[in-house]
Amino acid sequence: MRDLIFSLVLFEFLIGLPVSAIPRASASPIWQGWNRLQTVLGAEIRQSDSCCTPFTYPEHNFSVPIDHFHNEDKYAPHLDGKFPLRYWFDASYYKPGGAIFLLAAGETYGDERLEILRKGIIYQLARETNGLGVILGHRYYGKSFPVSDLSNANLRFLTTEQALADTKYFAENVVFPGLEQYDLTAKKTRWVAYGGSYAGAFVAFLRVLYPDTFFGVISSSGVTEAIIDYWEYFEAIRLFAPPKCIEFTQQLVQFVDKILLDPAKQQFVPTLKQTFGFVNVTHNADFAAALTASGIGTWQERNWDPAISDQRFDLYCSNITSEKSLYTTPHDFIPVLKSLTEAAGMQHLSVGKRLNQLLNFIGWANLTVVQPCAALFDTQDECFGTYDDARWQRHGLDQQAWRSWSYQVCTQWYVCIE
Question: Residue span of the signal peptide, if any (predicted)?
C-alpha cells in the first residue's frame, strides 16, 4: 500500500544533534534520538551520553544456546552451539540479599539503554533496595548474533520464544564478574524484569512462562495488540500535545497534503520539495515520511522519567510556535513559499506570524534531517528512499537495523506492510 497520506505516514527516521546546533524559542534540552532508518543506523549515527562509555559499564558476554527447542520442527535444521549475548551491569548499590533488576533491551543495540542503568528506573530500584541492575541484549540485535548473516534461513532462530528462553537461561546461570562469591542466579536470588513497548510485552511473557524464575516484572507501555492500519497512533499526540503546536502541525499537514494529493497540482510538487530541502527525494511518500520524522515522530521518544526523557518534541514545538523567525532565509524564498500556499488555498500561512512559523519548520527540518543525511550520503534517495528493492534484499549483519525487527514483526506479530 503505497498511497500517500502525509497525516498517516509513520515515523521511520530520527537523528540526534548537539544542543548548540538547534535554534531555541525557549530553553529546552536536546534529546538523543534513536533511528530505525536502516541507512542511518547502519552508519551508527547514535549519540551517546558521556556517562555511558564502556569505561563506566564494561560490556560482558554470556553464552546461551542458539536453539532452545530441538523438538520444534520450525527450527530445523537444529543447531547445538551457543552464541554470546551481551549484557551490562551495575553493582554499586548491591548488598547480599538484594534483588536483581533486569532490563530487557528489546529491539535495540542494548547499549542505548545504559542511561537507564545510570539514572533511570533500574538505577532507582537498585539504589533503594540494595539490588543489582543489569541490561540484557536481545538475540539478533547489537552484537548478539548466532548466525553469520540475516538470510531468511538464518533468521529462523529469531523468535520471541527463543529470546525469552535466552533470558531465562541467563537468569538461571549467570555469574557476575567480581561477584563470584554470591549465587545471584534465580535459584537463590529474586529477579525482577523491566521492559518498555515490545520489551514490555516481552517481560510480561517472561512472568507467565517462567514464574519460578522471575519473581516479578514491570511492563511499561507493553504492546497488547497488533494493528496494521493504526491511524490512532497519532491521536495521543493530537489530543495531549501542546494545543498551539498541534494546531500549526495540522495546518502544515493540510498544506502539504493539498499539493501532494491533488492531481491538478502536481506541477507544484518539485517546488514544494525544493522549498522544504528535499529536492532530490523521488517519491512523495518518502518526502512525507521525512517531514513527519522531524516533528510529531519524536513524540514517542518521551519518557515519564525526566532524567532520561527525550525532549526533542518540546524543542520542535518551541520552534514552530515561535512568532519570530529563528533561521536565516534567502530573499527570494518568500515569494516561492507564498505561491505554494496560494496553490494550496492556504494563503494565511504566508502572512505575519504564520509565515515565521512555516519558515521555522522548514529550518528545523533542514537542520535535524536534511543536513545530517547530506553529510553521509551522495543522494537524498539513498538516505530517505524506500523504493529500492535491491536494498531490501541485502542480508548482511549490517542490515540488522531494519531486517531483524521487520522479520520479527512479520513472523511473530503478523503486522506486515504491503
Answer: 1-27
Backbone dihedral angles phi then psi of residue 268, each to the nearest 5 degrees: -90, -10
What is the tens place of the pLDDT at every residue in 119-167?
889 999 999 999 999 999 999 999 999 999 999 999 999 999 999 999 9
Q: In this predicted structure, what is the pLDDT of residue 342?
A: 97
Q: What is the DSSP track for 202-216?
A: HHHHHHHH-TTT-SE
Max CA distance (Å), the chain: 75
Radius of gyration of the chain (CA): 23
Nearest to 413 by CA among 104, 242, 201, 234: 201
Residue 81's pLDDT is: 96
- How many angstroms separate the CA atoms of 93 and 12, rounded? 38
pLDDT at 187: 97
Q: pTM for the full model?
A: 0.80
Backbone angles phi, psi at 124, to 5 degrees: -65, -45
Helix, strand or coil, per DSSP, at residue 86: strand
Spans of the chain below 70 pLDDT: 1-55, 414-418
**Of the candidates 175, 163, 172, 322, which has an alpha carbon nearest to the alpha carbon of residue 242?**
322
pLDDT at 414: 66
Q: Which residues contact 24 (CB under 8 A, 6 or more apart)?
A: 315, 318, 319, 326
Looking at residue 333, what is its pLDDT? 87
Nearest to 175 by CA among 183, 187, 167, 164: 183
What span, in angstroms and rounded, lies between the C-alpha atoms of 311 and 258? 30
Amino acid identity of residue 90, one-letter, is D
Question: Phi and psi at residue 135, in whole multiples of 5°?
Answer: -110, 125
In order of 129, 150, 238, 243, 246, the CA distances from 232 in angstroms are 39, 32, 10, 18, 15
Sketch out the chain's domains with CATH numbers: 6-46+234-387 (no CATH), 50-220 (3.40.50.1820)
Dig out the grid coordinates for 266 from the structure: 502536481
Over residues 45-99, the pLDDT tens digits come to: 333 333 444 448 999 999 999 999 999 999 999 999 999 999 999 999 999 999 9
Closest CA to 302 of 50, 111, 116, 31: 31
pLDDT value of position 11: 27
Distance (Å, rounded) from C-alpha 116 to C-alpha 15?
20
The Cα-based distances of 289 to 14, 147, 253 in angstroms read 11, 32, 12
